[in-house]
Design goal:
With 381 residues, the protein is α/β, with parallel strands linked by helices. The chain is built from 11 helices and 11 strands. The strands form 2 sheets. Strands 4-5-6-7-9-8 form a 6-stranded mixed β-sheet, with helices on one face. Strands 3-2-1-10-11 form a 5-stranded mixed β-sheet, with no helix packed on it. The radius of gyration is 27 Å and the shape is globular. It starts with a helix and ends with a helix.
């Protein structure tokens, strides 16, 4: 018995050390995979995106010849307390924050536009809950100094027209400085931002005010001097129209971008005023604003189409992994005469899941496979 204890004692000690070594190494393996998936993978994917090129305009005034870098995202849908599991909320918000802040670090846009549906339950929130969600959004999507951030309202922020009230509208305007209609001049590039729910045309107070503002903008645009004959910081250039709803279209059947709707959804008819603007509002915006480009959102799928009047429209898909396996954002270089756009895909959910599966396989192999030879174990023990 004394001899067996003398022999088995070191063996037990050695086995204990081996087990502890495997567990520690498994922890390190998991930590490496976790850091890659939750931090570094975003950088690896986002660094593959590049800004599109656009012809540079020679001008005596630097403001007229400057290309600006603009990023468009949409439908972030920050979860509230009514829908979605707490882990789903935690996971999606982490993903969006990492993707957005990584993009800010790598690509450094001059301007960021968020095209509505910032919140998921803004239409149901009381004021206290609304302010809580607003603070979360501003923290997650904070931009560095020198970058402008502008947002539009979506149907989940204020509700569809039949749910929208003056109070819900005004609190969104106050927190995000986002009235129903406004025009921005950014280095002589004009952007007209429109609240889609105010385009109902039923003479409600919000709708009447929005159409009045559109008429004023159209009047001011018509009297601007030509850019080649003035040194003023405002000159005649076609604006870019931004809104949450797409312009009127029958369905997504014409949409063929990589992030467009799946085939089974493309032929589903759109409901005017719910899935897109109606024909009246579409014609009104085209006639008053005469945009050179329309950027919209709302459907959670991407779409590129050219209208009958030759005006192109990009619909930006959702920025949330809750709505898509492959969220996207839109990068654009714009000057007062030209523009160029490129889609940028965020990390795929399936890819991240597969990397975690690989991590589990590596850990299991590590636990089952002999880590060192018997001779080396005997020497170490």
């Amino acid at each position: 018995m004394i001899y067996l204890e003398h022999v088995l004692g070191p063996v037990k000690k050695c086995s204990h050390l081996i087990v502890n070594n495997k567990i520690f190494r498994s922890f390190l393996i998991f930590l490496c995979f976790f850091l890659y998936c939750e931090v570094f993978h975003y950088a690896v994917v986002m660094i593959q995106c590049t800004w599109p090129s656009v012809p540079y305009i020679q001008s005596s005034d630097a403001g007229y010849g400057t290309n600006i870098k603009v990023m468009f995202i949409a439908d972030t849908h920050l979860l509230g307390f009514r829908q979605g599991h707490w882990f789903d909320k935690l996971r999606r918000e982490w993903q969006m924050k990492q993707a957005f802040q990584t993009t800010m670090l790598i690509h450094k846009p001059d301007v960021v536009f968020v095209l509505g549906d910032l919140l998921d339950e803004g239409k149901w929130c009381d004021d206290e809950e609304f302010l809580y969600h607003v603070a979360r959004f501003k923290s997650m999507f904070a931009v560095p100094k020198g970058t402008q951030l502008h947002v539009l309202s979506g149907n989940h922020d204020e509700g569809f027209h039949y749910m929208m009230t003056e109070h819900k509208h005004e609190r969104f305007v106050e927190e995000f400085n986002s009235p129903s209609v406004r025009i921005l001049n950014i280095k002589n590039n004009l952007f007209v931002l429109v609240n889609s729910m105010a385009m109902e045309g039923d003479e409600c107070s919000i709708c009447l005010q929005a159409e009045k503002q559109l008429q004023e903008i159209a009047k001011n645009l018509s009297v601007l001097p030509d850019c080649l004959t003035t040194t003023d910081n405002r000159c005649k250039t076609q604006p870019i129209l931004l809104q949450h709803f797409p312009m009127y279209r029958a369905s997504d059947s014409e949409c063929n971008t990589e992030d467009s709707a799946p085939p089974q959804e493309k032929t589903i008819p759109f409901r005017p005023r719910l899935d897109c603007l109606d024909l009246r509002s579409t014609h009104l915006l085209f006639s008053l604003i005469q945009p050179r480009l329309v950027i919209s959102a709302h459907t959670h799928h991407g779409c590129y189409r050219v209208h009958d009047n030759k005006v192109p429209e990009w619909s930006v898909s959702s920025f949330s992994w809750r709505n898509r396996d492959n969220p996207t954002l839109l990068l654009a270089r714009i000057n007062h005469q030209n523009f160029s756009l490129a889609q940028c895909f965020l990390p795929r959910e399936n890819t991240v899941i597969n990397i975690y599966i690989l991590a589990v396989v590596v850990i299991v192999v590590n636990l089952l496979w002999p880590s060192i030879s018997y001779k080396y174990r005997q020497k170490m023990c």
